[in-house]
Amino acid sequence: MIGRSILIVLLYLFVADSSEGIERYRWRLAEEEVEGSVCDLYAREFARLLKEKSGGTIELSIFPLGTLGTPQEIYDLCRQGSVDFLLDGAGQVGARVPENQIFSIPFFFSDDDDENERILSKSVALNEYLTSAYERQGVTVLAYWSEGAMDWTSNRNLTSPEDFKGLKIRTMPSGIIGRCYETLGANPRIVPFMEVYTSLHLGHVEAQENAPYIVEEMGFMDFQSHYIRSKHKIYVMQTMVNLKMWKNLPHEVREIVLDSIEELRPLALKIQREQNRKKLDKIVGSMEKGQRYVSLSKEQRDVLRRAFGNCGSRLYVENSNDKKLARRIYDTIKKEIEEITGRR
């Protein structure tokens, strides 16, 4: 439940102010990550661009993780119009928009940043078909972008399907993620993001998946013996906006927003690359005795891809609210990925 003080702040930051005869916009953006993260750097540059391109008539207030609620709660705030913009990961809201769990299928996307950027920015399956599922809930997605490849950290080596048997691995609140791991005999457990560190410490889970910069920032290697550079998924962030507010904006204001987001695409790619490279180097450089860094070979990736097999596509469609839409999304993006990567 949103606290009274938070509601007062949100009401104070009203959408538009037409004092002095000039239409001014004071918007609120909630983000699912902490200050200084890739997501936060994106949000701050977004605010700067909006102010610059609007001649100072648009101001964006940023609310980092924890100030307004969990990633799931801030999604609901955006649906309700209590916040205007939202930066939230697909996996965080998979229970609410199961069609977005196309991003949760292991080894489905490329392990190349440039190829994934082309897919996310150009895909009809995502930018039209998947976005329509969000719009049914009162939000629309203005951009899908990657925060980098996700890897495994664990207290055992994870290079073959057999290594996952009995593994207590933390997952985000998405049924398809856990069920994919179950096909390899793992024991997936949903744990809220802010409780992962403690859960690793107490041994409630013994493995997790995240991008390098998150692993380092949150200190997950404090209780892990292995860092496996698997690149088995990409962490997809979504730039979202309340649909009603968006539709009511003048065309020229929407163009300022869209121009700003388009300008952010190469910057977001640059930021995540730099952050992930720097953080991964720091992880490896600070490893203690008994800790290991392992990078999956192409052959190991191929074996794991086959082991996960068709479970991802089957579970994706089965778990969707709109199975016809899900099948359309899957079939379309599979072809798009094949065209860009050359992988069949």
- Please tell me the CATH architecture by its name: 3-Layer(aba) Sandwich
Order of helices and strands: HEEHEHEHHEEHEHEHEHHEHHH
Computed over alpha carbons, the radius of gyration is 20 Å
CATH class call: Alpha Beta
Supply the number of structural domains.
1
CATH domain fold name:
D-Maltodextrin-Binding Protein, domain 2
Q: What's the total helix number?
A: 13
Q: Kindly, what is the distance between the CA atoms of the first and last residues, rounded to a whole number of angstroms? A: 47 Å
The low-confidence parts are 4-15
The CATH homologous superfamily name equals Bacterial extracellular solute-binding protein, family 7
Q: Bin the strand percentage.
A: 15-25%
By secondary-structure content and strand pairing, the structural class works out as alpha/beta
User: How much helicity do the residues have?
Assistant: 40-55%
Q: Quote the average pLDDT.
A: 92
Largest sheet: 8 strands, mixed
Shape: globular
Number of strands: 10
